[in-house]
Amino acid sequence: MKNEAISIKETDNETSETLIELSEKLEKDIYDDDFITTITDYPTQLVLLGILQKSGLQQEAANILKMSQDLTRLRVNNIKSDGVRLAEAVSTGVTTIFSIFGSFSIMVGMLLIFLVFVLLAAARSTELGMARAVGLKRRDLIQLFTYEGTLYSFLAAIVGTLLGVGLSFGLVYILQDLIGTDNFQILPYYSPISLLIAFASGLILTFITVVFSAYRASNLNIVVAIRGLKDEFVKKAPNPFRVNLFEVLWNLIYPLKQLYFIITGKAPRFRSLLLMMIFPVSWPFSFVRSLFILFGKHSYLLLGIFSLILLITGILNESYINIWFGSTGGVLALALLIRFISSKYINDPETVNQIGGTLEGGLVLLVNSLPLSFFESFTGELSQPGPWAWPIGGAISTAAAVWLLMSNTRVLIFILNLILSRFSGLKAVTKTAISYPMASKFRTGLTVAMFGLIIFTLMIFSVLNGIGDIASEQPERVTGGFDIKASVSSELPIQGQIEDSLNMDDYSSVFGSSSLNVEIAENIGDNKAFKTSRLISYEEDFMNITKWRMAHFDPKYGSTDAEIWQSLLENPNLIIASGSIIPSGDPFGPPDRTFKTSFIEPGDEKEIDAFDVKIRKRNSEEEEKFTVIGVVERLAEETGFGNSGAKFYTTYANGNKLAKETLPLNTYYFSLSGNKSPTDYAQKLEKTFLANGMNAYGLINRLEEEQATSNAFNKLFQGFSGLGLVVGVAAIGVLSVRAVVERRQSIGVLRAIGFRSSMIRTQFLIESSFITILGIVVGIFLGILQSWLIYNEISKELEGAKFVIPFGEVGILVGLTVIASILASVIPANEASKTYPAEALRYE
After folding, report:
1. Domain residues of the chain, as ranges?
2. Other C-beta atoms within 10 Å of 220: how many?
3. Statement: the pTM of the whole predicted model exceeds 0.90
């Protein structure tokens, strides 16, 4: 049983853990209350019986079934436990979604912190150079920046935590208005532990960024820093090969190395003690770093070896993540090799950087833009990546796009000058406005990456929201072509024909259906264990009228949706399944322990081979064999979170045959004649069948309400993700303020040769707009590219899906972002325009 539990761990982790626990107790002969409670759980019983039957122990399975019925005569309904688990699944899914999309804003915030310290180092270069000249060591500069940054981090974490609580409460109240039902409530809640975790997370992430920034700022050249020249970092002479090799060997016994430093004091003891405490992270990092130092200019060889190892392990383990990282590293190693070869034959370093940067950024971006199916065409089926692969991939793609863009600044400047040369009045201002950010590629690249990351997520939201509009464009695929759906209490069924109580002149068709709880298993396949499901049996005329479409079907039984439905009437051994029998792997959905098939995977072709299943009434041993000839697309299922369990559709006669009784009709579908209001007639039906507890609603109205709620949720997530734009705009403001101080003398020269104050102001505003537009272009390009990949996967399962770029939303997004960046630069631009040449060029 333990082996079977391990085999199903990937598809049903909860059941796997339950079976492992039972197996261990059976081995130890422990039959306590927990064991009895677990063994009497009905879904667990089904799995155990399936394992026994799969092992050829049919008689033992029958004996256990009889004994379990005696054991569970008084059954416990875990309705509260199930409700709590559903609420936990919902909260976990929502938290994961917000965390994933919030991670982009976190990355942007870290980039802004890094940019601020880059600008601080540039502003204090002379001061830092003099400090180093009088005896301060690099570690002293690191401590100086770290202490300052830690103070900022602490204060920022406090403010951020308080603002986060306020924002969270606001989001909860918005969600309450969007849901608008008493059956499912969302209430604001926080605990001291959650506040402490939020505060500590922000503080730690900021501290890590500060330490890295401080380390980078400490690597300055004393002479260059004192003279206030352009930023230049120390290029140390390479160590001899034997020294680098010794460092690699020394790092093989990293814990002993740090222990040696702690005892002898040959390195700062506190630093060595800290590295010793985090050696599971610091050990591999130090070892890999020493390897790259050893290889030096030939690091592409090492990167290629690591990438090849990842590719091989990915193919052997069918791991997409390993193949993805291996492919990315492999093409990067190839590009670095070409850069190295180019440097041997081309004397111009800028041309070498352009060739290398173009290939590095372009190839990495290309690999990260390939769909999963591309890799599976070479390797076979691969494991699906987790939800966190998306933000990682987005960050890699953005970095590659920015690297590609910043490596081709000469081409960019040439194109812009060619375009702007036609406008003589703006040529001088625009040329200087573009040249300055292109000269500071690192700062400009950081800012472009900030805007690119946020616009990237917002574009995906906008495009995918348009793909989901297929339900409103073709509502009959959801409603089946009916106007009203009504349900009655199973204890108070409608006696006789429902048509006798209605004025049939108002209705063109009325059909009823019944629902039966069943257990289903594959006859031949991997899922032979019986799992719970529902059998929906419709009156025969339903099959002639319904407009539900098939996501998959066997062409032997028909070439159209209507022919597949007709096959159920012609052959009582056939059955149709809902789309929920296909494993979705949705990490955000509710727990679903109902039947899943092993014959169909997401993204499979529409035409399939029919497969057999065994169906039996719940708590019954008598099985019936049916052939599944089609799978209805997911659009046709009942809407609502948590209502997506597997269902099977058959005729009313088949349902009665399997149940060994006449099932009461508990759900009805109505089609109105003429242009009558479904809402009005739904209310009339409820009044007519009040004694039966009928609940009726217009299907189109319900669909529109849910679409409106879905759109509102998307807007909410867009607004949440769009908070990162505030960080990007802040970066533009910081850059503008720094530019005014840094280029004071340049501004004086421009004023002295004839630039008016308005031209200086315009120059700064164009400069900020130019950087913002670069980031927007990168974000829009990557967002459309990623949306296209997602659309291709969705269109495999959703026939008729359309890829539409919402140009209106994109235009509003671009306009607001550019206006915000201009407003952030207005004050610095005004300050720059007020600079007098005589004051700016005075050196006393």
Report:
1. 2-76, 86-237, 494-665
2. 23
3. no
